[in-house]
UniProtKB/TrEMBL annotation:
Keywords: Hydrolase. Pfam families: Acetyltransf_1 (PF00583), CN_hydrolase (PF00795). This is Predicted amidohydrolase. It comes from Rhodospira trueperi. Gene3D superfamilies: 3.40.630.30, Carbon-nitrogen hydrolase. The keyword Metal-binding does not apply. Residues 19-220 form the N-acetyltransferase domain.
Amino acid sequence: MTDAQVPDSHATEDQTPRLVVRRAEIADIEAIRALCAQVYPDVAPYSSAHLRGQMQNFRDGQFVAVFEGRIVGYCATFRIAEAPAFALHTWMEITGGGLASRHDPDGDWLYGMEVFVDPEYRGYRIGQRLYGARKGLCQRLGLKGIVFGGRLPGLHRRIKKVGSAEAYVQAVRDRSLRDPVLSFQMRNGFEPIGVLPAYLPSDKESLGYAAHLVWRNPKYSGDQAGGRPARSRYSQRTVRVSIVQYQQRRVRSFEEFGHNVEYFVDVVADYRADFVVFPELFTLQLLSIENQRIPASEAIATLTRYTEPLKELLSRLAVSYNINIIGGSHPTMSESGEILNICYVCLRDGSVHQQVKIHPTPNERFWWNIEGGDRVDTIMTDCGPIGVLICYDSEFPELPRHLVDQGAQILFVPFCTDERQSYLRVRYCCQARAVENQCYVVLSGNVGNLPNVENMDIQYAQSCILTPCDMPFARDGIAADTSPNVEMVAFADLRMEDLAAARQGGTVQNLRDRRFDLYSVAWNRKG
């Protein structure tokens, strides 16, 4: 993308631009959130999940304005089909709750969901530059135009005089009244085509209304039909995933445990896997080093000693073997004294991420006093954004939906179940998650026995790699699985292009057909 730059008169002597408009990146999220809080002090700012969703659902559609290294403006868009764009709608339903989760790679219109600018820099025509970036994107993609709902901040002062929101928009259109936002948008070539009632109820100045605005691409020709869809750079590759159905056994030292883990990483790396997944709680075998029953009250303190060595081990293996490692899970005591069940995700670029289990099981609460986390975030990898759900979390459909709305296409589920019924709860729920979210779900579990370790004495697993149930995929929605209760590995090649095709034109289109006018997943905390 070519940055939109200010004229030479705004450049420093070495011709370095002071103000640029560029594509927003994940690293910009905290700065965008801070700017949002500054611009809208009476409204909760976008969460990091919202912004990740916007960027990961449509990478090319989000822009920031940067002045001398400081983010001073943000603009968010997504593609959408003509029918929903021109029908009556609310901001929440059209944007998928602010996550841009209704982005349609085949959509022939660009929807403008957000623009805000640092008040201290409004003299630099940053809003105009961001609108220009939108128009440029629309033309590069060969789309019909841009549509959105625009604020009417002067409405609350004049509603008694004009009588209705429709009359107010018409008066601004006739130039008998001036609105600071609508007048600006009209000067930038946007045409009011109606009014959207209850568009954003929290907008008190606009009384919840918005002007329904459209800009028609003058370079659009009907034979383009939007051109080829602008697929994500991740949608056309094949991702090879591997699962380790891991046998619990006594180990005599952390080094022995490390050798066992490295053996499997080495094996799957030889097959050029992009990901390897280990089971939930697979590190509990470290409690067998003492070769005696350790009271539950002491077990977590013992395991916490291995947290940093575990992260160092997995990170070293990820880099050395050029593979992304989903490191099962490891019970850990946090600095604040909470006991959490954490999955450490070590990527082959050397970065280490973590996902805390949200829903501890009754046994986890009873034996180890494990507490739940409060957020699920996608993790950006070289194969695209992924999500992790630790065992029981997969049985709560809100969590995977939240991850998929952020852009995740593969969900990894490390699990630990003691007998067949427990296993099938996880298996059936994960298959449902794959269908309802049109995504891949990858499960890895423990087998074998571990005497003298509370709550890990028996294991049952049949690890598997699940797909949606539709034409491009395996007949039963199972890309690969293992034999029950046998230590082994399994592989599958997951085609991201098949996933995109199913979401846009499958026999059923669960994501596209959601009733945003009736329901949505709303995260109550910062996650």
